[in-house]
Amino acid sequence: MWTVVGEVLSGSGRILLEPLQSVGESLKWEKQKEAEWLGSGQETESVSTWSPNFWRKDLEEKLIQYMTAQIPPFGSSSNTDETALKQHLSQLEMTFLPSLEHRSGFFKEAGLLVTYTRSCHASLSSHLSTLTDTNHFSFSQCLLVYEWGVKMYKSETCLRPRQTPQHSLSLGVQCLVWIISKTEENLLAVARKEVGKALKEAFDIGKPPCADAAVIQILTEKMEAAWRVSESLSEKVEAVCLEECLRFLE
Fold first, then answer.
1. Minimum mean pLDDT range among 2-6, 28-32, 50-54, 226-230
2. In the structure, what pLDDT confidence band is assigned to residue 113 with cuts at 50, 70 and 90?
3. How confident is the model at residue 77 (pLDDT cuts 50, 70, 90)?
4. Is the confidence at residue 23, as pLDDT, over 70?
């Protein structure tokens, strides 16, 4: 059954709409039967070949697996390669997301749009979280991802298949808010780490007296870069940098 889902995602097209609709109808029937069993007060048991408690999870996991496999690879491991990251984010915006939006029509007609949309959000969120979670990403790279998330949030078009029911639109907003929040968390952690490293290097025995100027420069550059994106973000960056300075001096 899940093979049909994979073939639609791989671009096989409208010829698979009918079997995909059969998947949707089967899962809808399964859910109705589960509700009947629960409503009758009888013990819940499987009424088909799938467990009622896990049919949605199974489908979402399969969708996420297919979608994740289609995300353009980000091959650079350099923490200074901002050009490659910009290209990667552009690919997500101009190629990956539009392809998911295009195929959403098939899932809408099959009655599977909500599950499909949730899986889109999960695959994208996981990918971006993994990128910024790595120790290889610098402050400036995390800031690029953060800025991209804010831009997509403001555009009001990301992850919103055309003619999507109103209740599905909020899922996209929630997804982007989560991405922004998670990226901010990683961004602040990287800022703290980089400032701590600069402090250790500046006050190492044998360093020239002016070495502390490098720390001031790093603090200033980070706050100014963040301010260009968001004043509130700049304030948070300033706070964690000062906290790290105070912790180092204790």
1. 50-54
2. confident
3. low
4. no
Instruction: Dump pLDDT digits (tens) for 131-186.
Output: 888 677 899 999 999 999 998 888 755 445 444 444 343 346 788 888 999 999 99
Here the tokens at position 243 are 């906290």
In whole angstroms, what separates CA 47 from the centre of its chain? 35
Q: How far is CA 157 from CA 85, 86, 173, in A?
A: 21, 19, 10
Token pair of 59 as six digits: 């489908």
Kindly state the helix (H) or strand (E) to which residue 29 belongs, with its residue range: helix 17-40
Q: Taking Cα atoms as reference points, which of 209, 227, 20 lies closest to residue 104?
A: 20
Which residue from 117, 147, 25, 136 is spatially nearest to 79, judged by alpha carbons? 136
When computed from its CA atoms, the radius of gyration of the chain, rounded to whole angstroms, is 23
Provide the residue type at 102 as one letter: H
Instruction: Look at residues 144, 181, 176 and name the one whose alpha carbon lies nearest to residue 160.
Output: 176
Residue 91's Cβ-side half-sphere holds a number of Cα atoms within 13 Å equal to 11
Residues 229 and 232: their CA atoms lie apart, in Å, by 9
The residues, any chain, with a CB within 8 Å of residue 177's CB and separated by 6 or more, are: 153
Q: Which tokens in the block code for residue 211?
A: 């070495």
- CA dist., res. 86 & res. 59, Å (int): 32
